[in-house]
Amino acid sequence: FDRWWEFLTDDPREANTEGGVFPVVFGTVLLTILLSIIVVPLGVLAALYLREYAKQGVVTSLLRIAVNNLAGVPSIVYGVFGLGFFCYTLGAYVDAGPGEATQLPVFRWWFLVAAGMAVVLIATAFGLFALRKPGEPETQRNKVLRTLAATAWITAFGLLAALLVTTPYFHGFFEARLPDPTFGKRGLLWASLTLALLTLPVVIVSTEEAIAAVQPSLREGSYGCGASKWQTIRRIVLPGAAPGILTGMILAMARGAGEVAPLMLVGALKWAPELPVSLEAPFLHLDRSFMHLGFHIYDLGFQSPDSEAARPLVWASTLLLLAVVLLLNLVAITLRARIRKRMGSGHF
């Protein structure tokens, strides 16, 4: 037991072939928690839109096919995307703002602002004119105006993105630290976002199935009592689908905790000198790199200078990774069981 305590609480030494795995376990657990916090709200919102708000047709079917296909994309592709978009594009923007090549002159930028405001006004007008009076059937005019309003809103969001990319007033949050990047490099935040994208299809599919399984009579009873659609979703649909949502979270946690290929590109290191959490503000340092059990096992098994001597550590680290995933899943399963019990007793 003394050796196990040393293994769990000490830092790695001698190229990770001696010592413990405390920062490795800490990084794995923190990454899994962060990806769960990110992926569950995104997955629930996407599933709610597809099931409750989107008009069932060709476009919605294509979206569902795209979500299912994303579940089969190799994880290394997500890693390359995370490195290129999150680390080198979005991170560089956070550090230094838009580059000189993309910045617009002040007059042209304000002209773009005026154009965006005009598009917003047009989209609002189309949306108001597309509304039909109570009791009247929907006409072709309503459909055309609604389509024009949706197109105008998409254009407005595109102009907003262009304004952010070309603004001459933003020079980054960490310009004083350049040329050393703060967020424009591999780090915990970008690794969490990359794994959230990787596991998002799992959460969307499981949440949508859970929403579809809610009894129609409950919805009808809610509408009969005068509740609005959002009130019905918030008080009837989401509580009823909560066990299925947690099932998706469990699957996402299990897959995210065991991934290695994308983490090699967006954040995991052989040795991280500092933990992502410290007593210094902001306490949670999302820009720092971290150590991960999956990458640690790969490094011990295939990159160690003495693979034979590191073999016991490989087996011990593998067993520890399985135990960490099992423990996180047990916590989520326990929470799911309590929610089901509350639903059965009528507390919802």
From TrEMBL:
<dbReference type="GO" id="GO:0016020">
    <property type="term" value="C:membrane"/>
</dbReference>
<dbReference type="Pfam" id="PF00528">
    <property type="entry name" value="BPD_transp_1"/>
</dbReference>
<keyword id="KW-1133">Transmembrane helix</keyword>
<keyword id="KW-0472">Membrane</keyword>
<feature type="transmembrane region" description="Helical">
    <location>
        <begin position="187"/>
        <end position="205"/>
    </location>
</feature>
<feature type="transmembrane region" description="Helical">
    <location>
        <begin position="236"/>
        <end position="254"/>
    </location>
</feature>
<feature type="transmembrane region" description="Helical">
    <location>
        <begin position="109"/>
        <end position="132"/>
    </location>
</feature>
<dbReference type="InterPro" id="IPR035906">
    <property type="entry name" value="MetI-like_sf"/>
</dbReference>
<feature type="domain" description="ABC transmembrane type-1">
    <location>
        <begin position="25"/>
        <end position="332"/>
    </location>
</feature>
<feature type="transmembrane region" description="Helical">
    <location>
        <begin position="144"/>
        <end position="167"/>
    </location>
</feature>
<feature type="transmembrane region" description="Helical">
    <location>
        <begin position="20"/>
        <end position="50"/>
    </location>
</feature>
<dbReference type="GO" id="GO:0055085">
    <property type="term" value="P:transmembrane transport"/>
</dbReference>
<feature type="transmembrane region" description="Helical">
    <location>
        <begin position="70"/>
        <end position="94"/>
    </location>
</feature>
<dbReference type="InterPro" id="IPR000515">
    <property type="entry name" value="MetI-like"/>
</dbReference>
<keyword id="KW-0812">Transmembrane</keyword>
<protein>
    <submittedName>
        <fullName>Phosphate transport system permease protein PstA (TC 3.A.1.7.1)</fullName>
    </submittedName>
</protein>
<feature type="transmembrane region" description="Helical">
    <location>
        <begin position="313"/>
        <end position="335"/>
    </location>
</feature>
